[in-house]
Write a structure and sequence with these properties.
Layout: E1 11-15, H1 20-36, E2 39-46, H2 56-85, E3 93-100, H3 103-113, E4 118-122, E5 126-127, E6 132-133, H4 134-144, E7 149-152, E8 173-177, H5 182-198, E9 201-208, H6 217-230, E10 237-243, H7 246-257, E11 261-267, E12 269-271, E13 274-276, H8 279-287, E14 292-297
Parallel strand pairs: 1-2, 1-4, 2-3, 4-7, 8-9, 8-11, 9-10, 11-14
Antiparallel strand pairs: 5-6, 7-14, 12-13
Helix pairs in contact: 3-4, 7-8
């Protein structure tokens, strides 16, 4: 018997680097915060290293100036968010934080300290004084956090103008690829909960990568049974089975179906002190025609 799964993020984190795609991530984060009545933490992180040749007095003076600049940057961050969200900023609980640290480290530390339930982050752009690509920040965040990460990019079928505060993202079609593993169970439960909440159509896609000449009718029956045994849903669910390379099929289907979101389970593998996720997850995150929600699973979880 399938259980009812609830996804109710109460603390959402949105790293912001003032690029257009981080502004787009902010719009998605605002929609989530409003829908779930959650607190939205907007975080900006920058790194600064004092020149080695500075004297003690020069360093102390510069540190004081940086402290003053940090306060000004926080005010600028709040003003920028108000500009991007317009009147919608007044509809949610907003918190602003400016941290002097590498963006990835700042995100990971803040997520733990603030007990963040969901991270919403852009997948391109630039951040920090060293002009680090936010794409790499997003991938490193996905690879290390234990909470779901919503990676945001423009949808190929529907452009969202971030310069207009009234331009609001919608979630009407959700795609959840599944290999019917324990990791896929976790992803499906999140996808179904989000689809129920937003009244979206949920497509569950199973891809046969081996024995591609086999009759897929049994795969379709197995998928339907697996969905019924995994989660209870009120939304419309479309089970689909295809043949081919997993990443290629996921990307192709999402584009043709004009999906608004892909929900993908990521099983992390431990190697020394670093975790890695599979090639399919990596390809989908990098090339998806719409935002991707990654639900991570770590060894032993």
């Amino acid at each position: 018997m399938a259980d009812i799964f609830s996804f109710e993020p109460r603390r959402i984190l949105c790293p912001l680097d003032f690029s257009e795609l981080s502004d787009l991530a902010l719009k998605y984060a605002e929609v989530a915060a409003r829908e779930y009545n959650a607190t939205l933490h907007v975080l900006h992180a920058e790194t600064f290293e004092l020149p080695r040749y500075f004297s003690r007095s020069e360093s102390d003076h510069l540190i004081q100036e940086l402290a003053t600049a940090k306060t000004g940057l926080r005010n600028h961050l709040a003003e920028h968010v108000q500009k991007v969200l317009g009147i919608h900023a007044k509809e949610i609980d907003l918190k602003f934080d400016v941290i002097e640290a590498h963006p990835v480290g700042a995100i990971l530390d803040f997520t733990k300290q603030a007990a963040i339930d969901l991270i919403v982050i852009g997948t391109h752009g630039y951040g920090g004084l060293k002009r680090l690509r936010l794409g790499s920040v997003a991938e490193n965040t996905v690879a290390n956090v234990t909470v779901p990460v919503f990676t945001v990019r423009q949808k190929t079928h529907l452009f969202i103008d971030v310069s207009h505060a009234d331009s609001i993202p919608v979630l009407e079609r959700i795609l959840c690829p599944s290999n019917m593993s324990e990791t896929a169970v976790f992803a499906l439960r999140h996808a179904a909960a989000i689809a129920d909440r937003f009244g979206a159509v949920l497509t569950v896609l199973h891809i046969r990568e081996t024995d591609k000449d086999a009759d897929i009718s049994k795969d379709e029956e197995k998928l339907c049974s697996w969905i019924a045994d995994t989660v209870k849903v009120e939304c419309e669910v479309k089970p689909m089975v295809s043949k081919g390379h997993a990443a290629e099929e996921i990307l192709s289907y999402a584009k043709e179906n004009k999906d608004d979101l892909i929900v993908l389970g990521a099983r992390h593998q431990q190697f020394l002190e670093v975790t890695f996720f599979g090639r399919t997850t990596e390809l989908v995150v990098r090339h998806a025609p719409c935002p991707v929600l990654i639900t991570p699973r770590f060894p032993g979880s």
